[in-house]
Amino acid sequence: MEASVDAKDGLLENTGNINSDSFNVGVFFMPSWNVSGNEKQDIDSFWSCITGRENCSFLADKSAWGPNGRIYNSRFPYEGPYLNKKPIEPLKGFYKRDDPEVARKQLDYMHDYGIDFFAYNWFFGRHYYYHKNFAPQARVYYPENWPTDMSRDGRVAVPGVEEWDDQLEVLLQENAKRPKSKQLKFALNWCDDSEDRWIHWLRMASPQNINSRTNYPGETPDKELYLKVHDKITLLWIDKYFHRDDYLKDETGRPVVYFYFPHDTESRASYYGIGLDALLKRSQDLVKKAGFPGVKFIAVTSGAMTSSQQAYAMPTSWKPIDPKQPWLGGKYANRLLFQDYVPRLKALGFDGMTAYIYHDFYDQDNKSYADMRKTYQGHWDKWSKYFKNDDEFDYQVPVAMGWDRRPAGGTWPQKSGFPSEPLKDKVISDKSSFKVKLTAARKVLVENQRTNGNTLMVCCWNEYLEGNHIEPTVGHGFDYLEVIREIF
Domain of life, per the record (predicted)? Predict the structure, then answer.
């Protein structure tokens, strides 16, 4: 049974007199990108799927939906367009990603409604080579004094570039213009979860890439290069972000890095016989060398919890089907259920955990927002209790607006062209039900602040294709922001 608003008020009174200033409210920020493949034609990955289906790249993805893409029929009808998700007029509706006026408004809304920081979903294409002597690529980050091939226009010896960072760039430019008292903090949420990026990395050594001169002999995705790329990622964080005053740091001065689905990185690193703990230690060593006291890594993680879902549990290893041609694909193995994976996090080098989305808690899964509240309450209680006696590991209590993947085709894509669990796309909240959930989350924070820490993580500011977008829209206005400001 859902708590009434009056019950909520009483519940707040009973959680103690801890001031809202005692808590930090963070929100995940998901960038969109141009799906056209043409710099002169910008087809936004979000808006193309919200406004229709003709240009929605997710619906045409054959690797997800099979040879015909997403199929619609009387049983699985198209339910769009989803115009209630259009951002409000002060955000210019279906805005351009790099519009500084929009970024300014987004920062205003976050600050004015009680959000303390945003965690930007940060992507890195480790397979991209570029040329420091080629003007359009000259400003792409490369560690100082690292080698380049002058005979090939300064082609870098260690590949890898940031992807989809144009929104972050404009947000930080605008944030720097704000008075110090009104600046948002930001953190990176490293999303190293892409199978496509992994295969592109392995493909560097393929005859196809060598023959097409996409890559040259010697540009081999071996263990040595893998570790150099990891070091490059860390140095980029240090040089470009960690030294900023508005980067999120803990009370000791450690930069905070969120790490989305670390089991994916762990699996792929195992191909080289490298442990995830070793990767995080390399990062720690480089960050300490740069003068910081270290990094605070927060795992952003969730997964299956029942034996019937073992096939979908969290893998910890990856092996190629053909060791001589690893770019043809491989198999993920040594899968752990979520409750077996979490106890490993601290030894792997993490100082806390949170979640992007909890889809289930044991046999409890989400087919309504009431279900989702039960799922989240189960996780909050379990992990708060598990870490109760560990004041060096934060459980950052997560909340979510809901789940609705229909604009991207539905949950979950199958090669048949149809979603496997369309009922899960009805996990939709409103102001009242979100208020109940946020109130319960605050209660958990108050009761466990000594060991859980003081951070609430909200999913998400703008996950428009997954039904998690608290950014003001024509459909819900400022409802979700008003709840955050009221409760926190």
Answer: Bacteria
CA distance 472 to 113: 11
pTM: 0.95
From first to last of the 488 residues of the chain, give the pLDDT tens digit.
Answer: 333 333 334 334 444 444 556 899 999 999 999 999 898 999 999 999 999 999 999 999 999 999 999 999 999 999 999 999 999 999 999 999 999 999 999 999 999 999 999 999 999 999 999 999 999 999 999 999 999 999 999 999 999 999 999 999 999 999 999 999 999 999 999 999 899 999 999 999 999 999 999 999 999 999 999 999 999 999 999 999 999 999 999 999 999 999 999 999 999 999 999 999 999 999 999 999 999 999 999 999 999 999 999 999 999 999 999 999 999 999 999 999 999 999 999 999 999 999 999 999 999 999 999 999 999 999 999 999 999 999 999 999 999 999 999 999 999 999 999 999 999 999 999 999 999 999 999 999 999 998 889 999 999 999 999 999 999 999 999 999 999 999 99
Amino acid at 219: E
CA nearest to 396, candidates 448, 461, 361: 448
Q: How many Cβ atoms sit within 10 Å of the Cβ of residue 161? A: 20
The Cα–Cα gap between 417 and 151 comes to 48
Q: According to DSSP H, which parts of 247-368 are helical?
A: 262-270, 276-289, 338-341, 345-348
CATH code of 136's domain: 3.20.20.80
- Answer whether 98's CB lies under 8 Å from 167's CB: yes
Separation of alpha carbons 282 and 486, rounded Å: 42
Residue position matching structure tokens 């007199």: 17
User: Whole domain around residue 263: which residue ranges?
Assistant: 5-487
What single DSSP character describes residue 307? G
HEC string of 143-167 equals CCCCCEEHHHCCEECCCCEEECCHH
In DSSP notation, 230-271 reads HHHHHHHIIIIIITSTTB-B-TTSPBEEEEE-HHHHHHHHHT
Number of domains forming the structure of the chain: 1
For residue 155, what are its two tokens? 């082609």
